[in-house]
Specification:
- The complex is a heterodimer of chains A (about 110) and B (about 900).
- Chain A is of the alpha+beta class and about 110 residues long.
- Chain A has a single domain, classed as Orthogonal Bundle (Arc Repressor Mutant, subunit A).
- Chain A contains 4 helices and 3 strands.
- In chain A, strands 1-3-2 form a 3-stranded antiparallel beta sheet.
- In chain A, helix 1 crosses helix 3.
- In chain B, a hairpin with an 8-residue loop joins strand 20 and strand 21.
- The longest helix of chain B is centred in the middle third of the chain and has 37 residues.
- In chain B, helix 2 crosses helix 3, helix 15 runs antiparallel to helix 17 and helix 19 packs across helix 28.
- Chain B has about 900 residues and is an alpha+beta fold.
- Classes of the chains: A alpha+beta (about 110), B alpha+beta (about 900).
């Protein structure tokens, strides 16, 4: 049961991270805050799920990282989308659209 | 693309691990500090902000671990950890590891060695261009075609792109360069090398019409002869050499590693064939044997080509002279892949060896499985602890399997080393010593599996095979112990605190079944080995007919004539021939240390001439339906020289000459078959086919012991001996000397004697009779020795298995034994208890083994001589040996159990 939810959340989380980075490069905390902002506070991404996801997505080639300075002049690791990450947004968005539609229909049917 | 990314990341994560970790540390730290700064900016105190940030973060180590777990390459790393752990475990249990590695290493090594032979000889394609399209065409009993048929077939058949061929076997004397030397020349058609896709290394190939009779005398040298006789002369092309006194021009040199596509021929010189354009056949036509090698047209199978050739040959028969009707009717053409033709009789023994060696490997695996099972039980506590600490079942199984993999990898390395040594020995058993033997023929062909043996080696496919074998042995020997080991009931295992844990009933059944199978398989091997040993003994019982000790033999070839359907003729007149033999014999007898010297048209084990036999008074039967006998022309001292006892009557003497009455000595098989054993003084007619339709009437003056011909494996057949001056063969002369000392010392003296009589006559094939016998049985002896070794190995391994299983079970039951002793059981009683239990399994294995051996030994039938596949002696001996060894192996742990120290056992609780 708990495993199923992680899986669902993981797919969602990936898309949210990709979306968050769509506007430009961000560091870990920035991504977290941006997701909170674009989902109007619905999703609060904890570091425990954020960092594994970032590292996994980087290894998959969707994100690339570099060290830069934060707005408070602190050294921080920034992430940005790669070309394959941009493609991945499209793919995942489409996928999500299908799932969302299916879910909505399913829920209406009852 | 994604895979590539993952691979690069995995590599980075493993190779630059400290760097990656440092980066992760810093990234997380900066996150926490940024959150802290936010909080401070929002008005919290520094300490408050920091602790709330940490709290929100939720455990730095956990986050790190999750990141690590998700990293690429983590699986590989864990596997590596498992392997290291497994290796440490194996090092700690030296006894177990050593036993398992040696057991499995022997199995893998033997299997790999035999596989590399099978692969090199039977599976790897021949070193010719598109070798799978090349076929050999042969007549009945692998005979070559006759050349008029061959020439006609080249234009008349549709199945072949090209139909090339070579005249079978010709020996010439090469003069003009150093000492005269006997060379083997194969006369090949002009398209012979192109069919094989072979291009001369130097010079050119034959022109397309250089194989018709009347073409200039041209030839190619083999690389071997070119290097050893001509000093690798780069300007050899265009030079002339003399063969049997005729000039030939060298037009090229064959490539270095070219191997002639014939199982019995490796020529020094490739001459051009001599084909006649007329394809009609009369009794006077001079005929040659020619062995065709052809390239099939794309899409045509060997079977289709064979059908076409058979029909073609039958159609040709209409133009044949009537004398050869019976031969024509029985002709059967075979078209088969060249590889099959080259390896012919060797295929079966090789597959049998492979099966035997696989059986040994199976036993090794069963043994190691049993060892691992025992170990898994004694490691139950460790397994339980690991389980309690959160290792999943899959993780535990993986751990066990990785350990087996480490084990079988080490064993594979040992196995590879064994296989290397074995293949090296096979190759070098018959390697050419260039300086000593300029002519390759005899030597290459003497290798145990023919000339392809020289190509046996460990290459990529054999290495792939060994990797596969390691994986298979891992799975076979590791899977069951892994599954049963991982199925640990943690509570009981932990509660009993590692004191005594017994294996379950189900596991015991499995272990015992393995043991029964081991004993059965070993028994099958043992029975097969017994059958082969008995066959070998039968084959080696040749000494009834002749005495191989202190005997030197040699050959000289007088042949310089032509063969027609009437038989061969020779350029040597009878006078010249008898004069030559008389003078040669005088010289040979005068050599020091020679007790007897004789000449003959054939010696024991040669294939001799054959003659039709006709009893007196029996009306003429149609030609071709007469009984057949070997016929050998000999000089007087032949029988004492060869060592054949005269059973009745007399030997020949110098009074038996051209003018005296025709006499014969027959062997006892002849006397039994044709004269019911009473042959002395009887008369019969014979025609050896060497002088037309004339039948000689011979009186039998002596009977001698049977001697085998062709091989040691055929039973003796009827044979007639005639005095040399009264016989008709004048083609090949065999000489035989019985010496008082080491016969090999006389080899040069024999050569000189021949040169003194006629300097143009070379003597060749000088070898002792012992050497000839040992060459003839070389392959059989090798196969027998290998299978005996495998059988011994199997017996030892299964004895180790029995010992292991019962030692283990006795240790497990030490407590029970103690109680039995305490309750008054005698030591002998305990001994009996254990041995009886073992005996039950051993008997079961025996029954299984005997049953399978009865079925399996039929496969050996083709290798057996003088014994039936169900030979009771071999089977019962095998059974007795296996049972005894296994019982002894079980008696050791049983006597240990009987010595159980009551006090120690009861105190251990």
């Amino acid at each position: 049961m708990s495993q199923d939810r992680t899986k669902l959340l993981q797919g969602t989380l990936d898309l949210l991270i990709l979306k968050a980075l769509g506007a430009g490069e961000l560091h870990g905390l920035g991504i977290s805050r941006r997701i909170e902002q674009i989902t109007k506070g619905t999703f609060l991404v904890k570091p425990g799920s954020l960092f594994p996801a970032l590292h996994r997505m980087e290894e998959a080639g969707w994100l690339s990282s570099f060290w830069g300075e934060s707005e408070s002049n602190r050294r921080a690791k920034f992430y940005r989308l790669t070309r394959s990450g941009t493609k991945q947004i499209e793919a995942e968005t489409e996928q999500w659209g299908k799932v969302a539609l299916a879910m909505t229909n399913a829920l209406k049917a009852t | 693309m994604r895979l590539w990314f993952r691979f690069i990341s995995a590599l980075r994560n493993i190779v630059r691990r400290p760097y990656v970790e440092e980066q992760l540390d810093e990234e997380l730290r900066s996150y926490i500090e940024m959150v802290t700064e936010e909080r401070i900016a929002a008005g919290m105190s520094a300490a408050e902000a920091r602790s709330s940030a940490m709290e929100e973060f939720g455990g730095v180590e956990q986050v790190k671990q999750t990141v690590r777990d998700n990293r690429a390459g983590t699986g590989t790393e864990l596997l590596w950890q498992d392997a290291c752990y497994g290796f440490r475990q194996l090092r700690r249990n030296r006894g177990f590891t050593l036993t398992a590695v040696i057991t499995m290493g022997l199995g893998i090594g033997a299997t790999t060695a035999i596989f590399s032979a099978v692969y090199s000889l039977l599976l790897r394609s021949l070193p010719y261009h598109d070798a799978d399209q090349i076929v050999s065409v042969s007549d009945t009993n692998s005979a070559p075609l006759i050349d008029p048929d061959f020439v006609a077939a080249r234009t008349a058949t549709r199945s072949f792109q090209q139909l090339a061929g070579f005249h079978t076997y010709s020996e010439d004397t090469l003069t003009g360069i150093g000492d005269p030397m006997r060379v083997t020349r194969a006369a090949v058609t002009a398209d012979f090398l192109p069919v094989l896709g072979v291009v001369p290394a130097l010079g050119r190939n034959f022109y397309p019409d250089e194989d018709w009779s009347g073409s200039p005398n041209v030839l190619l040298l083999s690389d071997h002869l070119w290097r050893n006789k001509f000093g690798a002369d780069p300007k050899i092309v265009g030079k002339a050499i003399k063969l049997d006194g005729t000039d030939f021009t060298v037009i090229g040199v064959a490539p270095r590693h070219f191997s002639f596509p014939s199982p019995y021929l490796e020529p020094d010189i490739y001459g051009s064939a001599v084909l006649e354009r007329t394809t009609t056949l009369s009794s006077e036509t001079q005929i040659w044997g020619i062995q065709p090698i052809a390239r099939l047209r794309p899409g045509v199978t060997a079977a289709q080509a064979q059908a076409e050739m058979q029909a073609f040959i039958q159609a040709r028969a209409k133009g044949y002279p009537p004398e050869i009707d019976s031969w024509v009717k029985s002709r059967r053409i075979t078209v088969e892949p060249l590889q099959r033709h080259l390896t012919g009789d060797d295929r079966k023994p090789l597959y049998i060896l492979l099966a035997c060696v696989a059986a040994v490997l199976l036993i090794s695996c069963a043994n190691v499985t049993n060892l691992q099972l025992a170990r898994a039980v004694s490691r139950k506590h460790e397994t339980a602890v690991r389980g309690a600490l959160g290792a999943s079942r899959a993780r535990l199984i993986r751990q066990f399997l990785v350990e087996s993999l480490v084990l079988s990898s080490i064993a594979s390395i040992l196995g590879l080393a064994i296989a290397f040594v074995v293949t090296f020995l096979v190759r070098h058993a018959g390697s050419l010593d260039d300086s000593q033997i300029p002519s390759r023929v005899t030597h290459v062909l003497r290798l145990p599996f023919g000339k392809l043996s020289a190509t046996i080696q460990i290459d990529g496919w054999v290495l792939a095979f060994i990797v596969g074998l390691a994986a298979a042995t891992t799975l076979i020997s590791g899977l069951v112990p892994a599954i049963s080991g991982s199925r640990t009931d943690m509570r009981t295992a932990l509660a009993s605190a590692g004191a005594r844990m017994s294996s379950g009933r189900e596991q015991r059944f499995f272990r015992h079944s393995l043991l029964v199978i081991e004993i059965g398989v070993a028994l099958v091997l043992l029975a097969c080995a017994g059958l082969l040993v008995r066959s070998f003994m039968h084959v080696m019982s040749y000494d009834s007919g002749f005495d191989a000790n202190n005997t030197l033999t040699g050959t000289t070839s007088l042949y310089a004539g032509v063969i027609t359907l009437k038989g061969p003729s020779t350029a040597w007149s009878k006078e010249r021939y008898l004069n030559f033999t008389d003078r040669l014999l005088l010289r040979l007898k005068a050599l020091p240390g020679v007790k007897y010297a004789a000449l003959g048209s054939a010696l024991p084990l040669d294939s001799g001439g054959q003659a039709a036999i006709l009893y007196e008074g029996v009306s003429n039967r149609p030609r071709g339906q007469f009984p057949i006998s070997f016929v050998t022309d000999i000089t007087p001292e032949y029988f004492p020289a060869v060592g054949t006892p005269i059973l009745a009557g007399r030997a020949f003497n110098s009074a038996d000459n051209e003018t005296s009455p025709l006499v014969a000595i027959v062997n006892s098989a002849f006397a039994k078959r044709f004269f019911a054993g009473e042959a002395l003084g009887k008369r019969f007619k014979t025609n050896d086919g060497l002088h037309g339709d004339l039948f000689d009437t011979l009186t039998i003056v002596g009977v001698v012991e049977d001697v085998r011909h062709d091989s040691l494996e055929r039973d003796p057949e009827p044979e007639v001996f005639r005095p040399l001056p009264q016989g008709h063969s004048r083609f090949r002369l065999r000489l035989v000397l019985r010496t008082s000392g080491n016969p090999t010392l006389l080899a040069n003296a024999v050569r000189h004697a021949m040169t003194a009589v006629d300097p143009r006559q070379p003597v060749f094939d000088i070898e002792t009779m012992d050497q000839r016998v040992s060459d003839l049985v070389a392959q059989r002896r090798l196969i027998m020795l290998l299978i005996v070794c495998f059988a011994m190995l199997a017996v030892i391994l299964s004895a180790v298995g029995v010992y292991g299983v019962f030692t283990y079970s006795v240790t497990q039951r030490a407590h029970e034994m103690g109680i039995r002793v305490a309750l008054g059981s005698s030591r002998v009683g305990i001994l009996r208890l254990v041995v009886t239990q073992a005996a039950r399994l051993i008997v079961l294995g025996g029954i299984l083994g005997l049953g399978s051996a009865l079925a399996a030994s039929k496969l050996l039938a083709s290798l057996l001589v003088g014994v039936t596949p169900h030979d009771p002696i071999s089977f019962s001996l095998a059974w007795v040996l296996m049972t005894t060894v296994a019982l002894l192996a079980s008696a050791i742990p049983a006597s240990q159990a009987a010595r159980t120290n009551l006090i120690a056992v009861l105190h251990s609780d």
